[in-house]
Amino acid sequence: MATKARVMYDFAAEPGNNELTVNEGEIITITNPDVGGGWLEGRNSKGERGLVPTDYVEILPSDGKDQFSCGNSVADQAFLDSLSASTAQANSSAASSNNQVDILAQIGCIESLSQSPPSSSSPSPSSSINKVSSGNDPWSAWNASKSGNWESPDGWGAKPEGTAAQRNTSNNWDTAFGHPQAYQGPATGDDDDWDEDWDEPKASSPYFKDSEATEAGGAPRGGSRAGASSMKLPLNKFPGFAKPGMEQYLLAKQLAKPKEKIPIIVGDYGPMWVYPTSTFDCVVADPRKGSKMYGLKSYIEYQLTPTNTNRSVNHRYKHFDWLYERLLVKFGSAIPIPSLPDKQVTGRFEEEFIKMRMERLQAWMTRMCRHPVISESEVFQQFLNFRDEKEWKTGKRKAEKDELVGVMIFSTMEPEAPDLDLVEIEQKCDAVGKFTKAMDDGVKELLTVGQEHWKRCTGPLPKEYQKIGKALQSLATVFSSSGYQGETDLNDAITEAGKTYEEIASLVAEQPKKDLHFLMECNHEYKGFLGCFPDIIGAHKGAIEKVKESDKLVATSKITPQDKQNMVKRVGTMSYALQAEMNHFHSNRIYDYNSVIRLYLEQQVQFYETF
């Protein structure tokens, strides 16, 4: 008997992509339960066949009736079927088998009752658009955290970097390194795992797909892709993130001498990264539609051309996502890594969406190329310069086995500067925290105001001008009906005035794309940057607290006086890294805002001169 399934969420098929449009509550027949990549093939009551996301349906019992109390999703049913088979094989007695069946039935009921919409690792229903607010503000968690809350009874607790372990579970920063841009792509396994190019749906506005839907959380990208039920990677997945975390760096008897060194020098404005003698950018262009699974699934591939080599490589969005994850895992403790533009289920092959995504991928790559540490890193260079598939896979696996990640990235840094005392270190950390928090508030305020202005310029305001224009033309028509010959010039003038107002309506509606768009994009990008700082600051404050506690540890012979000196020196290295990053941040901030505000004002002047 054919397997039936009930649709749990509406799903709109992508035209030309062999998908099937289904509606919540609809019963479909499953013709192929495992097409691959989280999809199944189904047939609706009209006989139409196509692909449907696996997590959008639940298997119905064999009798065809929908029993809410024990309905399981396809994924759950497959797991229970395999578990039932292995259990039956291991337990030959009928009584034991019956007990296992009862247990499985109970598990199915429990899972059905507790079932929630799919996470961001699978297609999910459309989420509502949220305005910019502080309701999901990562800074609130950072400000509320206390240094002593995460310590173990012996005063030397095993705490992950930052203070994410004690944050409220409603906060998006609670897992995966506690980072606001926590990676939500596929696990690093087989290369075939990259083949999905969809995620949570987005808002309909072409210019606020990210900024409207995710303002509450931190870009995402954004940052944390706020508002979505998301899968985040566990800390112990990567070396350097496992407990005891910060102590791994501070108390290491002797730090290994890595091949890669990140020097920090003192320049005119304080500590700074060493910039390469020649810089480069990367041009993202030529998006092309490709296919897989014998044409059943499609994706967009982009051409990347570094300006220093002029040799192009091709990457899909999933490859960008992989790079983002590796950079976040390796450098996220010291350098803010802004998130990528979000994914979406429907409309991902539309020209407007492809254009917007390519523009934001270009901005992201340019930002990475401008960073002296990121741009020179092995993983970034390999992403841009691999020559064939074998070289790509070799470099990919090497990057995934890198042990110098998390707080251990500080072990590669060598400040060419005198040691700092703890008081100065703490002052520098507090100053960075104060500025980045204030700038975060200012950026969010401008995003809110800009978003409201955009809506007004593209909605109510043009309509008002159109109403005035039509009213004037209607009046001219009435005047013309009088038959009085002496008013022809007046009627023509009123008609032209009405047409002018209609033209003004079009100009007003189009103007935000010429000026406000770029200002909003710049602010949205910096909002992603600033959302990374609470956990970076939290890691520094955690290290400072450990050094403060070191006297007690020396007194109880848990560490030696030399260990304490090493701790102070290593916290000093962290401080120099933070100052170097802030100098890079400030130089880019001044350049970016100078450029975007100048463009905005010039476009505004041209707009008003048009009238």
Automatic annotation (TrEMBL):
Keyword field: Cytoplasmic vesicle, Membrane, Protein transport, SH3 domain, Transport
Main location: membrane
Residue ranges, compositional bias (Low complexity): 113-134
Membrane topology annotation: Peripheral membrane protein
Biased composition (Acidic residues): 189-199
Region (Disordered): 113-230
Protein origin, superkingdom: Eukaryota
InterPro entries given in the database record: AH/BAR_dom_sf, PX_dom, PX_dom_sf, SH3-like_dom_sf, SH3_domain, Snx9_fam, SNX9_PX, SNX9_SH3
Domain SH3 span(s) in chain numbering: 1-62
Sequence ranges of Polar residues compositional bias: 165-174
Location of this chain's protein in the cell: Cytoplasmic vesicle membrane
Domain PX: 280-391
Family under the similarity heading: Belongs to the sorting nexin family.
Name of the protein this chain belongs to: Sorting nexin
Species name: Balaenoptera acutorostrata
